[in-house]
Write the structure tokens for this entry.
Amino acid sequence: MTDEPATGEPSMDEPVPVGRTTDLGFAKLMPDIDRDGGWLLTLDGTPQSYVDLADPTHLEFEYTRRIGHLVDALAPAGRPLDVLHLGGGALTLPRYLAATRPGSRQQVVDVDGPLLDLVAEHLPWQGPGADITATVGDARAALAATPARSQDLVIADVFHGSRTPAHLTSVEFLRLAAAALRPGGCYAANLADGPPLAFAKAQAATVRAVFPHVFLVAEAPVLRGRRYGNILLAGSTAPLPTAELTRLLAGDIFPARLTEGEELAALVGRTAPVTDADATDSPPPPDGAFSVG
């Protein structure tokens, strides 16, 4: 399998886009002409990851910035964490953790082996302080095989194209995540939904059925059901650092709102948790929501 080069005649030192057909579609790595070291990964035209090889602490996408804020708030600065990443993309968040918390032990699981190969060849992730292992496999199967109470953080960021697979949305799946976490560990999921937020509400109900401490983060227009967008949903057996996280979210260049407690309960209403018997993929985005050239 070979990469598809860009057209034209760039200089020998100029990074060029590369593309490859992978198990889930056509992946393309495109250099950011406005930022040295910046690369965008798309899959069938849908943005998947943005990586800055020169500065892995730079988080370009809104949802990665929010997960980054959560990572920053979970433990004292610099303390290593054991983290399981379900979904790899270009390994943006593993690189961030390796840079901000050197010595963190990180396992990345992605179902698309050729995509991981493409990223490894063109945007290698190993370096000083990085203990990152990437393997090919199904996220749920990998979670089921994870030793009990071995992880400080489980991050679920799995999209097949632009949709979260159904088998990663149920109470049964969340119970596997809870079993893998140490006491007080955190489960965090990147989801996407739009009006009337039926999927997001059901996922919040599902996380609330497993974890006693839960919050949801989204931009105000998304939370109000006015447009499609990313949603961060997190749960833990211990109180989460919501005050610090609220401060970080408010000061971000992409401000977002954190919802918890009674406000989250009101949002969920009578929505029932999702089980394996009734789980469905997340809804598709509206046409043109994430397309790039």
Observations:
- Residues 124 and 154 are 22 Å apart (CA to CA).
- Residues 6-11 have pLDDT under 50 and may be disordered.
- The longest strand covers residues 181-193.
